[in-house]
């Protein structure tokens, strides 16, 4: 929480004014029983109506003053808390883009979403209540206790028994509920993950008639969360009744003791009323303090989850390497696994490429083709081996600078809401319409874009929902080409294209000037057969590297892929 409180720096004045105004309100509130004492002991006993009306007028003025102080304090506290929440969300959102892919994999999208929404709201509420009550409640409780002793020391002894009992109850509830709230937030992450999966996979769920199974899965998670929340809620709900019971028993004890002392003329009616008012003030403030402690407990749990993200190692480390001679692009005995202890996704991969060369990567599903592209772009760092670009180890390159020289078309075509123009120029903002059209022409997308009513300004919905799969892939290719990259990576980027369109796309890329180094990842032999060299992967291992003809003669795995696809085409 200490790290998070640094986001209140821009609201220091609000953080001071809010509590100070609350203390001024508390001071007026603590003065009220003294006026009641005076009205009772002097005004009523002596029948002095003018004295009574004068003091009542002062009480009314104090009431309006307290209202002004309270509303002003609420304003400053709310402004500080809302500004704090906005800064925390902004910091979290910015942090996400600096996290390495392995960190994002560990946290999960659902966990990050929960932290940016529910967790931040809980911390914001805790800050708001703390600014309003953290000073006010203790001041009124202990102020009322001290003033009660000044009114009548013997009658105030009841307070000395009540306050320790209330403190014990409050801290017992806090210690019990704190671990429960941690479990609740973790379970909420799971609920969010199930919801995201069901929303993104709704077509598959309906196609396979799995609505009932997913409903049951969600219901089971909801029941688990409900049980945790019920348990925490039951324990938390005991706080207010126990507080009321203790304070009301204290009031009964106060009236009883006051009556006994009154018989001995050791206390006056006005003093009993003043003590009763102080007891009531303590009751209300302790109830508020109890609610504050529950809120702060939740906020503390959520704050630790947020802090864990903010303190997470963000950008990947940059090692020292001045570079040297060697191929334009090289993998040297590279191995990598996504999780410690799990089987390697790629193992001892070695190959190289010069600028202008085309390297094809082929293999079965799960053979590690996409992992090679992810390592080259430094989405992940290799466990063993070395990857160099222009003779320089990628671990010594700033990830942003490294990726600036890449044009990447990922396996899943991701488009953003906007227009065709905004999507094509996403990686190269500011390029001219001529360059944009040239990229679309090379990507074989110019024809269908020109047929759209608004051309480059035609709208694109989120994820490209208003486009076909092939259209999304071609716009993704155009986006990569618009950067004029030194290295172009096409990760299964033609899977939705027919063979003729794919052939035109390959010819367009081959005609680029200057020619980039091209990495083509595909399961189609036709996509890679004309590459300068083909890397064949099987379960993460290199089982062949060479031209199409050489591999067909010498690599059984490649020959099997070719023969299987040939038989399928003939059939």
Key features of this structure:
12 strands; Rossmann fold; 2 domains; 571 residues; alpha/beta; 21 helices
Written description of the protein model:
- The protein has 571 residues and is α/β, with parallel strands linked by helices.
- It has two domains: 2-310, Up-down Bundle (ABC transporter transmembrane region fold); 329-570, P-loop containing nucleotide triphosphate hydrolases (Rossmann fold), CATH 3.40.50.
- It contains 21 helices and twelve strands.
- The strands form three sheets. It has a six-stranded mixed beta sheet with strand order 6-9-10-3-11-12, with helices on both faces. A four-stranded antiparallel beta sheet has the order 2-1-4-5, with helices on one face.
- A hairpin with a 2-residue loop joins β4 and β5 (392-393).
- α2 packs antiparallel against α3 (49-96).
Describe the secondary structure blueprint for this structure.
Elements: H1 2-5, H2 12-46, H3 49-96, H4 101-107, H5 109-133, H6 136-151, H7 157-200, H8 202-207, H9 211-237, H10 239-263, H11 269-310, E1 329-336, E2 346-353, E3 358-363, H12 369-376, E4 384-389, E5 392-393, H13 399-404, E6 406-409, E7 418-419, H14 420-424, H15 433-442, H16 446-451, E8 459-460, H17 469-482, E9 487-491, H18 499-510, E10 517-521, H19 525-528, E11 533-538, E12 541-546, H20 548-554, H21 556-570
Parallel strand pairs: 3-10, 3-11, 6-9, 9-10
Antiparallel strand pairs: 1-2, 1-4, 4-5, 7-8, 11-12
Name the CATH class of the largest domain.
Answer: Mainly Alpha
Radius of gyration: 35 Å
Strand arrangement across the biggest beta sheet? 6-9-10-3-11-12
Number of helices: 21
Query: Level of helix content?
Result: 55-70%
């Amino acid at each position: 929480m200490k790290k998070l409180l640094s986001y209140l720096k821009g609201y220091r004045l609000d953080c001071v004014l809010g509590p100070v105004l609350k203390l001024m309100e508390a001071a007026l509130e603590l003065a009220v029983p003294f006026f009641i004492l005076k009205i009772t002991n002097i005004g009523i006993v002596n029948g002095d109506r003018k004295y009574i009306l004068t003091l009542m007028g002062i009480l009314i003025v104090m009431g309006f003053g307290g209202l002004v102080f309270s509303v002003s304090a609420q304003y400053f506290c709310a402004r500080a808390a809302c500004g704090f929440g906005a800064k925390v969300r902004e910091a979290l959102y910015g942090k996400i883009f600096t996290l390495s892919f392995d960190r994002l994999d560990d946290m999960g999208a659902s966990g990050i979403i929960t932290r940016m929404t529910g967790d931040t709201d809980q911390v914001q509420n805790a800050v708001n209540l703390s600014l309003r009550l953290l000073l006010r409640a203790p001041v009124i409780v202990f102020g009322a206790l001290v003033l009660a002793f000044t009114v009548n020391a013997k009658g105030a002894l009841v307070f000395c028994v009540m306050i320790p009992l209330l403190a014990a109850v409050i801290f017992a509830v806090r210690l019990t509920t704190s671990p429960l709230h941690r479990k609740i937030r973790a379970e909420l992450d799971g609920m969010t993950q199930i919801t995201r999966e069901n929303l993104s996979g709704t077509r598959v769920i309906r196609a396979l008639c799995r609505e009932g199974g997913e409903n049951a899965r969600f219901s089971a998670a909801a029941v688990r969360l409900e049980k945790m929340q019920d348990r925490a809620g039951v324990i938390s709900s005991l706080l207010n009744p126990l507080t009321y019971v203790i304070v009301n028993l204290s009031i009964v004890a106060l009236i009883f003791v006051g009556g006994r002392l009154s018989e001995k003329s050791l206390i006056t009616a006005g003093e009993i009323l003043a003590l009763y008012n102080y007891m009531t003030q303590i009751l209300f403030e302790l109830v508020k303090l109890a609610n504050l402690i529950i809120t702060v407990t939740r906020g503390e749990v959520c704050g630790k989850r947020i802090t864990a993200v903010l303190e997470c190692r963000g950008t990947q480390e940059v090692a020292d390497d001045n570079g040297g001679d060697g191929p334009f692009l090289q993998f040297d005995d590279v191995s990598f696994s996504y999780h410690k202890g799990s089987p390697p996704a790629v193992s001892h991969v070695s190959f190289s490429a010069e600028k202008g060369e085309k390297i094809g990567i082929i293999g079965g599903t799960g053979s590690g083709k996409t992992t090679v592209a992810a390592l080259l772009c430094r989405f992940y760092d290799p466990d063993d081996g070395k990857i160099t670009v222009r003779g320089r180890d990628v671990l010594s390159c700033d990830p942003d600078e490294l990726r600036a020289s890449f044009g990447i078309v990922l396996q899943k075509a991701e488009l953003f809401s906007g227009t065709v123009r905004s999507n094509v120029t996403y990686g190269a903002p500011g390029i001219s319409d001529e360059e944009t059209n040239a990229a679309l022409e090379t990507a074989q997308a110019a024809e269908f874009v020109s047929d759209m009513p608004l051309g480059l300004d035609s709208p694109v919905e989120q994820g490209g929902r208003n486009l076909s799969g092939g259209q999304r892939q071609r716009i993704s290719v155009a986006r990569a080409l618009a950067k004029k990259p030194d290295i172009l990576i096409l990760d299964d980027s033609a899977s939705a294209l027919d063979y003729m369109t794919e052939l035109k796309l390959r010819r367009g890329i081959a005609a680029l000037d200057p020619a980039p180094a091209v990495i083509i990842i595909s399961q189609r032999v036709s996509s890679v057969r004309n590459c300068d060299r083909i890397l064949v992967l099987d379960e993460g291992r290199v089982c062949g590297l060479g031209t199409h003809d050489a591999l067909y003669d010498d690599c059984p795995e490649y020959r099997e892929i070719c023969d299987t696809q040939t038989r399928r085409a003939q059939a």
